[in-house]
Amino acid sequence: MLFDFSGAGVALVTPFNEKGEVDYPALGKIVENQINGGMDYLVMMGTTAETATLNYLEKREIASFVQGITKGRIPLIMGLGGYDTADTVKKLETADLKGISGILAITPYYNRPNQEGLYQHFKAMSAHARVPLILYNVPSRTGVNMEAETTLRLAGECRNIMAIKEASGNITQISRIIKYAPSHFKVISGDDVNALPVISIGGKGVISVIANAYPKKLSDLVHFALEGNMAAAARQHLELTELLKLQFDDGNPAGVKVMLEEMGIIRNVLRLPLVPANAVIAAKIRAEMQNLA
């Protein structure tokens, strides 16, 4: 399925049961809710999925399950990355990418490469990619920020690098990428709270966390903004503002899992070293959900 990486995407959570196993019926409900809520694409094995705690078999089974549920109704993006370029390229070459529209490729973490190292890492991925790549810049997690010049260099030289999920929170940096990027290259907000500001200056959407719980509200916000109806988009943004903050106050995906449990969709189980949101934050989230309803 051809896909231009515009619109409302969701970084799917991974529900677990009381035994800590992947809860596939709950995952199926979330996926169907996304489709019914007007979301444009799904991202599997991103940060919100607690991917670092999933083993190889689980990742493969989740991808197969989601593909089986969606049956081509919505584009699928798969997260794939690492801090060893050779190993990352090998995973990219051997991954089963049937039915996958693109790869979300995170900046290498822990070893903190400089800008030339980031460029060479993604250039190597580009040379071996069988589907388009979305760069993923999230310095709060990886310890390194990919600067606008590096992103633009990759966008200009590697035609199969089609977009970036920008979660630096640096609006100046994001603005420069949007201003100077080639026409084929999309800038996607990596933060729910910045979806509207980024779209307002030429960004093409968001990969969202809160959409796991509120797909229709999030998709409406994005689609209104992309259509130029900024007043309607702003109303949706302001309606969600408190939850957009609260969902990260005790870590991700702890906040959105409180919401999904309150909705009766999942059990509020995370895998160590992550733990559920503390009682104070959870109570605030539930109270705001009541206000939102």
Molecular structure report:
- The mean pLDDT is 96.
- This protein has an eight-stranded parallel β-sheet.
- The protein has 293 residues and is α/β, with parallel strands linked by helices.
- Helix 3 (85-94) packs parallel to helix 4 (115-128) and helix 6 runs parallel beside helix 7.
- Helix 4 (115-128) links the parallel strand 4 and strand 5 (133-137).
- 46% of the residues lie in helices and 13% in strands.
Strand order of the largest sheet: 7-6-5-4-3-2-1-8
User: H/E element string?
Assistant: EHEHEHEHEHHEHEHEHHHH
**What would you call the structural class?**
alpha/beta
DSSP summary, beta strand count: 8
Name the CATH architecture: Alpha-Beta Barrel
User: Main sheet, how many strands, which sense, barrel?
Assistant: 8 strands, parallel
User: Approximately how much beta-strand content do the residues carry?
Assistant: 5-15%
What number of structural domains do the residues give?
1
Q: Poorly predicted ranges (pLDDT <50, ≥5 residues)?
A: none
Number of helices: 12
The mean pLDDT is 96
CATH topology: TIM Barrel
Distance between the termini: 36 Å
> Percent helix among the residues?
40-55%
Identify the CATH class: Alpha Beta
